[in-house]
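Think of the structure tokens as a kind of shorthand, similar to the way a musician reads notation: each symbol stands for something richer, in this case the local conformation of the backbone. In the example below we present two proteins back to back. Begin with the first one, reading the sequence and then the tokens, and try to describe in your own words what changes along the chain.
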Amino acid sequence: MLSTENATKCCIFILICVFASAHSYAVNIRDVNQGGNLVMEPEEAIVYPGRNITFTCTYHSNLTFIWDFTSMIQNYNFVEGAYLSSKDHVLYYSKLNIYSTTRLMSGEITCSIAEDKAKAVAFLIVNGVRNGGSCQTSSDCVTDKSVCQNGLCECPLNHVRLHVKDRGYDICREMIYSLYDPCEYDEQCAHLVDSRSVCKSVCVCAPWARDIRGRCVLISEIAYNRSQEMYRVGLIAVTCIIILIVAVSLWVTLRKSCQDQNLDGQRRSITQADFDFPTRFSIDLTSDKPPSYDDILVKEEEEENKIANPPNFKDALKHCMTAKRLLRQVSAPAGVVLPTDSPILKTESKINKEV
């Protein structure tokens, strides 16, 4: 039987063999893809039309490099040389310089060593020009949905050029104008609709904002606006209450003043009835105090003057003349008519004229 120590040694030996086999397999796979020690860089090149690109093929022996490409590459040249690697090994290289690339140059590029049967493969991808770049046909434009207009790649009508963060280059997308319009990228909503909107198949407000009448408003702004609105409403309510109180106070004051004026007028219009004796006088009931003694004496004197004053002289003379004429007519004999042109009648007529 094997001891524990021997069993451990056997396991370690088996593991070493397995790792060695795996390393050998990986080296063989790399040799198949890159031709053993033949290496080409870059393995894949993505460029825009009009750019220059260089592929470098490196080998450890000074042998003949053979380049092959199936694409329509026309403007190119080769540069060969050698350099000292970091491990003090001499490496030989051949460079393929391609100038003014076009979309038609995209394809596979092969570097091989005829003597060693080594082979390395790379890919050239010419993607097209961005918006604003020169073009001949719309196929030269790489920007999504862009077209060649007047020799330049531009977005078509009713489309807008957007820079998409996830892609790293510009795209053309249809114009959108409001929330809940269909979209593909956040940039569409942020640039065309609202800076606080995002794309969820349609443009909607971001989680930190709310839709207020078709506009995305920050939640913090909504809270602030509500507090301001409540403050304004409260201020308006207090102002209205103050105005109402002042108006009611003025109305009550004016009403009381009008009532007092009407009552004073009524009191002034009421006077005490005159007395039946010669010294009657009236007393103002609305006065705050009774008439003075002097006022009463003045009233009495006025009444006495009215009684003591004699009648008008002309009236008295007229009456006397009339009475004298009647007396003479009565004392005259029966059937005798006194003349009318007597001095008495003339005097009477004269008096009448004067009157």
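Once you have a description of the first chain, move to the second and do the same.
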Amino acid sequence: MDEEMENEEVIVAQSCNFSYLCYMKRRITTYGGYFERFIETLSAKELLKLHYIISLLETEDRMPVKFIKFIRDGLYELRMEYNNNIYRVFFIFDDGQIVVLFNGFQKKTQKTPSGEIEKALKIKEAYYGDKQSSNR
């Protein structure tokens, strides 16, 4: 096993009715239940595609702009298209290798709605507030 693989964790992940082994570079987590409520609105095929993109985020060093875009203030969006529908999920990187997923939505306009960005920034602020409180 090479040095890079020794530093990576082998996990068994189960989602969308299938299992696989992957070498994890990042740990994915959620905050506030926003992401869970969003995925309840997706079809099985949309959920499968989202799972694929999240698994890339979890395992790949670099991601193409097709899937990730920096928004501002440490906020990023995960980008997904399926059957002419466009979806976005906001997230942050925390402590280097942890990805925290926030709110998601179906995008219906060319530009990401500022209200959705502001909501994600407020969730980010609450996340760091809760994190700071739990570290006391």
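Compare your description with these statements about the second chain. The helical segments are 3-7, 34-39, 44-59, 114-134.
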